[in-house]
Amino acid sequence: MTVTIPDFTRGRSFDDPWEAYRWLREHDPVHWSEEAGCWILSRHAEVSHVSRHPELYCSKHGVRPKAAAPLSILTMDDPEHQQQRGIVNRGFTPRQVRRLAPHIREITDEILDEIQNRGEIDFVSDFAIHVPLIVIAELMGLDPSMRKQLHRWSDDMMAGEGRGPDDPASQHSAQAALEYVEYILPLIEERRANPSEDLISVLTGAFDEGTLDTGSGTTLERMGELEVDDLIIFLIALLVAGNETTRNAISGGLLAFSRFPEERDRLIANPEMIDTAVEEIVRYVSPVLSFSRTVTTDHELCGKELKEGDKVLMLYQSANRDESVFADADRLRIDRNPNPHLAFGFGPHYCLGANLARLEVKIVFEELFARLRDIRAVDPDALHRADNALVLAIERIPVVFTPVRD
Ligand code: HEM
Q: Which atom of ligand 1 is closest in space to residue 88's alpha carbon?
């Protein structure tokens, strides 16, 4: 059987990539794609190797195969990367994340109150979009009434992914970024004058401070004149990074439980399994599809000659279904342990929001299944997704459940 390997820099290639993933892992794990103009990495071993070796595969020339757009700390290498990460990390301490837990539960309950009598909804727009958006808004200290606006900005910015400059989606994307920045700028000034506990205040304070205790005994010097620019780019990255990713983990999780209803019933019967279940949802779904790196020095990988300047594209979904690491890789198994998936990346760029994302997915499914025990997708195999090569971008999931009668 011949398998066509699609151009994995194009969003539509991820509509049904499973056959191609399998073939690549088995026959050509470091595959040169003429169409994509880059190397395609499909196995767990190479994706983790590349993520762990920034000296051979760097981020500073961009982490999207066809764009060098600044994505804040995502597109930096050490030592600059570590410096900025040290700063922004202040907004993601375990304490700050824990502080949000009761509120995440409250938000989820409010949304459930609104939908529980309906019996059928669109799971994405009626449910999954809300919690990640509200959490990001809350974390940044934005007015909750800005939710709709944030939603539009975030989706428009994400929809520009991988498009040429003349594509209307790119123009919408640039316009959304501009509007968002116009909204954020006065807030930065306001929080500088009246700081509180939110991320904008914490980061504005940290960027202004001049020196910074990294927590490892070293203190960094002032970072130059770019503080506000860096902060703005980071706040753009944060809205996009924290929103569609977690939304797709929730949406994809519901599809997964609809495909494996025995696992849903098992979780409902054994709620203490939630932590391994969350990890397994994130592995099985892999909401982030791909990131790239640039080769820094000529060298060989799996018998292929990689040249300085070549791009390598890491396929996270494929790495997370690698049978040599995950037994029964195509099955959702909520007790999978250990579960060394790469859905949050690996190495120095490991997802900064991983613990927050885990907490959101955990609370959302705890509350959802506590109330709507038989909720399921009408067609678990139908994937209605947008044209996007960065995130799964599920647009809608018609679901049904037995309505709660109050
Ligand atoms: C299930 C949800 C999520 C997934 C699957 C995910 C995935 C990823 C991945 C794969 C990377 C690594 C990028 C690379 O190696 O180049 C990353 C980095 C990052 N993520 Fe997430 N993410 C999620 C949620 C979040 C949330 C909720 C936030 C923030 C609120 C966030 C913020 C970030 C940031 C700031 C980075 C850059 C870290 C660095 O470059 O040092 N992510 N994420």
A: 35
Residue 300: give the domain boundaries. 11-400
3-state secondary structure of 300: strand
CATH number for the domain spanning 129: value is 1.10.630.10
Please identify, by atom number, the ligand 1 atom nearest to the C-alpha of residue 74.
40
Handedness of CA 253, 255, 256, 257 (dihedral sign): positive
Would 224 be classed as within a structural domain? yes
For 110-120, the pLDDT digits (tens) are 999 999 999 99
What the block records as the tokens of 56 is 């051979």
Residue 29 lies in a domain: yes
Compute the Cα dihedral for 139, 141, 145, 147 and give only its sign.
negative
Q: Is residue 344 part of a domain?
A: yes
Give the dihedral of Cα atoms 266, 272, 275, 279; nearest 10 deg: -10
Ligand 1 near 344 CB (within 6 A) = yes
Atom of ligand 1 nearest to the CA of 285: 5
Please state whether the predicted TM-score (pTM) of the whole model is above 0.90. Answer: yes
Nearest protein Cα to ligand 1, atom 20: 351
Percent of the chain scoring above 90 in pLDDT:
67
Residue 74 CB less than 6 A away from ligand 1: yes
